[in-house]
Amino acid sequence: MRKVFAMLFLAIIGFYLFNTFALIPFGKNKMNADVAASYLNSGVQKTGAVNIVTSIVVNYRGFDTLGEVTVLFLAATGMGALLFRKKPMQRSRQNASVIVKTGARILFPLIIILGVYVFVHGHLTPGGGFQGGAIIASGFLLMFMSYRTYKVNHKVLSLFETFAGTSFVLLGLFGLIWGTSFLANILPFGEANTLFSAGIIPLIYIAVGIKVGSELTAVLDTMLKTVK
Amino acid sequence: MILTILEIILVVVLIGAALLAVWYRDLVAAVIASSVVSLMLSIIFYILQAPDVALTEAAIGVGLTTIIFMIAIRKTKRFEE
Amino acid sequence: METVLNIIGYTLTSVGVVFLFFGALGILRMPDVYNRMQAGTKATTLGAFGTILGVGFINPEWFFKTAIIAAFILISNPISSHALARGSHKIGIKLWQKKDIDHYARAEATLQEQEGDGE
């Protein structure tokens, strides 16, 4: 009986999803064209960011980004609360070979630089805070996997995270004080297509990148430490 | 034309990998299949000219999620009953 | 100048594509895990290296970036395949039946004899 209900439910959901998406050809734009056109046409003048996706994520929909960052923070906190262990166990029984260790030591700074590049240049090239943060976390993951005793200081991580989150909210409040609304772009735009342009967008993306990177690193470290 | 054929191949591989991810009883294999889904999705996003989303999908879907699942599997059980 | 660069670039790219094809063929045709991994790493590393550097020669303004990507592949690809091969050897995946020399196991044994048990 339950299976019948489940299949009926799936069929109803599938029917409505199909009806929603059937009219849109794959990969073509059939959505409300006015919104997209206005973003594309006036986005660069209004926000100063050449990358339209960044200008939407950080400027037009900046408040949503704050919510997303908060969700990630809650996930990391919940994971830490759930898996907290007073005496952390050893990470793995096997030692990584010399080749892996040396390679990880060479690659780690390069990966961190790539992550920082991705979130600093978020308003110019594809990428941004979330992507850069994930790349940084994967760099730390490489170190965790190749060195059994590699430790990150959780105090430093939470300090970074607090700093980044606070600066995000403070930037938004500055917009409320000196500008028109929360997260209003109060700094001068500068010349488009250069690194120091687009007002507060790069600052916010740097904050998001640091926050996401430290949160994901903390999640990975917590998970790796709790051996059964 | 070539792009359309490539898209069709990618979507077929994506659906196949998604079905395999559900079908496998070995959870490690299922996780690898789901990371293949993410990889295909990332290439499709790139073809559809959304490099931002493609980068996110590649970094988080292929890299971090797979690793987190792997760690969780190593700490619990490998096979589904 | 431009034609010379183009010729170099297209040659490198074609060589790379040929090696990538051999890598794919090797993954399909080789008998066991280690052989497949070797085909999928050696051939693909050279193939990707050639292709990416060739693109850099065709578009000279991209050369710096492509060189960085090529160097990254040159470092990371062998390391990851080494780690994979070592892991599969450690969990006891058998060699191909027609192959009876296992250098890695022998080297590991002598290494452990030399070092004792501590690390």
Automatic annotation (TrEMBL), chain A:
Q: Per the record, GO CC terms? A: plasma membrane
Tell me which InterPro entries the record gives: CPA3_antiporter_subunitB (IPR050622), MnhB (IPR007182), MrpA_C/MbhE (IPR046806)
Write out the transmembrane intervals.
65-85, 106-124, 130-147, 159-179, 199-220
Q: Does the keyword Signal apply?
A: no
Its membrane topology: Multi-pass membrane protein
Q: Where in the cell is it found?
A: Cell membrane
Please tell me whether the keyword Lyase is annotated for this protein.
Answer: no
Give the MrpA C-terminal/MbhE domain ranges.
Answer: 28-93
Q: Give the signal sequence positions.
A: none
Domain (Na+/H+ antiporter MnhB subunit-related protein) ranges: 99-217
Q: Which UniProt keywords apply?
A: Cell membrane, Membrane, Transmembrane, Transmembrane helix
The family note in this entry says:
Belongs to the CPA3 antiporters (TC 2.A.63) subunit B family.
Task: List the NCBIfam families.
Answer: PRK08386.1
PANTHER family assigned to the protein according to its UniProt record, in alphabetical order? NA(+)/H(+) ANTIPORTER SUBUNIT B (PTHR33932), NA(+)_H(+) ANTIPORTER SUBUNIT B (PTHR33932:SF4)
Protein's recorded name: Cation:proton antiporter
Q: Which organism is it from?
A: Caldithrix abyssi
Mind giving the lineage of the organism this protein is from?
A: Bacteria, Pseudomonadati, Calditrichota, Calditrichia, Calditrichales
Automatic annotation (TrEMBL), chain B:
Keyword Transmembrane helix assigned to the entry: answer is yes
Residues passing through the membrane, by range: 6-24, 31-48, 54-73
Q: What are the entry keywords? A: Cell membrane, Membrane, Transmembrane, Transmembrane helix
Q: How does it sit in the membrane?
A: Multi-pass membrane protein
Return the GO cellular component terms, semicolon-separated.
Answer: plasma membrane
Q: Where in the cell is it found?
A: Cell membrane
Domain annotation MrpA C-terminal/MbhD: ranges: 12-78
Among InterPro entries, the record links this protein to: MrpA_C/MbhD, Nuo/plastoQ_OxRdtase_6_NuoJ
Superkingdom, according to UniProt? Bacteria
Q: Is Lyase one of the keywords UniProt gives this record?
A: no
* Protein name as it appears in the record: DUF4040 domain-containing protein
Biological source species: Caldithrix abyssi
